[in-house]
Amino acid sequence: MRRKASLILLALAVFCAALSPLLRWYVFPRVAKIPAGQYQDMVLEAKDATLLDYATMKAKKVPEVTVVQTLKGNVEASERIERTAGRDVVVWDSLSYVQGPDGKMVSKLPERYIFDAHTQEPVHATGESVDGDPVRRDGIEFKWPFRTEKRDYEYFDAQTRTSAPIHYEGTRTFRGVGVYYFEQTIPWTKVPFPKVMPVKGITARSVARTGTTRWYTTVRRFWVEPVTGAPVYGEEIHKEELRGGTLLGGRAEVTAFSGHVKMREDYIEHTVALVKSNRTLVLLMTSYLPWGLLVLGAALLSLSLYLEARGRRPDDPATVRAARPEPVSA
Questions:
Q1: Which end of the chain has fewer surrounding CB within 10 Å, N or C?
Q2: Which residues on adjacent β-strands are paired with residue 223?
Q3: pLDDT tens by residue, 216-268
Q4: Nearest by Cα to 232 from 189, 194, 284, 277
Q5: What secondary structure does DSSP assign to 57-120, as a single string?
Q6: Shortest CA distance to 7 belongs to which of 293, 311, 294, 313?
Q7: Gap between the Cα atoms of 42 and 317, Å rounded
Q8: How far apart are CA 73 and CA 79, in angstroms?
Q9: CA separation for the pair 62, 80 (Å, rounded)
């Protein structure tokens, strides 16, 4: 009976030991993915910013500029692309909407971002665009991969339509969460005018005909929770200028927008709570269950060997002598 029990325990120990790396290296990469229908929004603010008044074409100080960013999963588009891509794909239709203190639109920038649901690598397919212009992304945008590494990544900048390194700058703690800090600097670069301008009757094409150009620079910062690859906080030191042309009345340049854009406090709290919850789920697959199964397997193996050793132990010699029959006298 002991031998049978030890064999069962040995089989369970082998099963646990085999399941542990299987969960981490086979199941997790296939199960962990971004949902195709995910929706999220974010509100950022720039206090005491500088904004261009298009009525006078002069820059002025304003108490606040608000940036609303939305990401909406397009399930229909992702399913269509998956049929030819041969992998799980997520299509995010995003919009960055900037408004002044009076609530009027300053600018808006729509994007379609297509990427692998598991690795967050870009998937190049019809529809990949920024402000209606086709683009070909390299690197990540919005989200880092699961199990983010301590290294630089290529990060896509929507204004310039190009990718540039975003540098790993060390490990920090943000609101009780261990994070990796990344920073990217985009130098002054000539960028297109938005398709939709804030003043009625003015278009990007009509502004371009005046010879005026639009330039942009930013310092982009992210605090990324490395297990999930999700930023818990982000901010930008953002500057835009109009340069040259007859639109400026002989001036060399004028500030179109300048401000330190930061996440609003209520969205920080919501994001941190969400990332903490998702972090637990990822750790369950990558650490808690694999290590727990290894420990359980080792315990079952030890118990199996103990029962096997007891099963092979000879009986007590005193008991053997007592049970031996006495010879019968003649």
A1: C
A2: 181, 233
A3: 999 999 999 999 999 999 999 999 999 988 887 778 899 999 999 999 999 99
A4: 277
A5: TEEEEEEEEEEEEEEEE-HHHHHHHHHHH-S-EEEEEEEEEEE-TTS-EEEEEEEEEEEETTT-
A6: 311
A7: 79
A8: 11
A9: 45
Question: Would you say 125 and 112 are in contact if contact means Cβ atoms under 8 Å apart?
Answer: no
Q: What are phi and psi of 25, to 5 degrees?
A: -105, -15
Amino acid letter for position 10? L
CB atoms within 10 A of CB 59: 18
At a CB cut-off of 8 Å and minimum separation 6, what does 25 contact? none
Q: What is the 3-state secondary structure (H, E, C) of 32-65?
A: CCCCCCCEEEEEEEEEEEEEEECCCCEEEEEEEE
Whether the CB-CB separation of 121 and 156 falls below 8 Å is answered with no
Positions in the chain whose pLDDT score sits under 70: 1-3, 312-330
Threshold 0.70, pTM exceeds: yes
